[in-house]
Amino acid sequence: MRLSTLAADLLILTTPLIPGYRVVKVLGIVHGMTARTRGLGGKILGSLQSLLGGEVSAFTDELEKAKDEALTRMKQNAHRLGANGIIGVDFETTEVFQTVVLVSAHGTAVVVEKEA
Fewer CB within 10 A of the end CB, N or C, for the chain? Predict the structure, then answer.
């Protein structure tokens, strides 16, 4: 189980349940997505790093930014619905046109309350 502390009033988990809480209302699916591409400098740096082997940090950094952006957008959608939690969170990535990476996050927006 991963609990995000990005928003103190919004519990975000990859699991379908939140230990110590009960779901009182399911508000629906929420998502966030972003499409990103590397600039020329990043492409050159990434190409050089890939020649040397190991992690391509230029691309890893860009994917991390994209993941955070998708997560933020998903949280904004959940807040609009009045949620205080998102359960079953998952991330997906795909490459578009060989130059753009699409990162999406989705989950179920819920209202939860602490168990007695």
Answer: C
- 113 confidence band (pLDDT: 50, 70, 90): very high
Cα separation values, 38 from 1, 23, 49, 103, Å: 32, 41, 14, 14
The helix (H) or strand (E) run that includes residue 41 is helix 40-52
Confidence (pTM): 0.77
Half-sphere exposure in the Cβ direction for 5 (13 Å, CA): 0
Q: Any idea which residue has 């609009």 for tokens?
A: 80
Q: Which residues contact 33 (CB under 8 A, 6 or more apart)?
A: 70, 73, 102, 103, 104, 105
Q: How far apart are CA 86 and CA 78, in angstroms?
A: 7
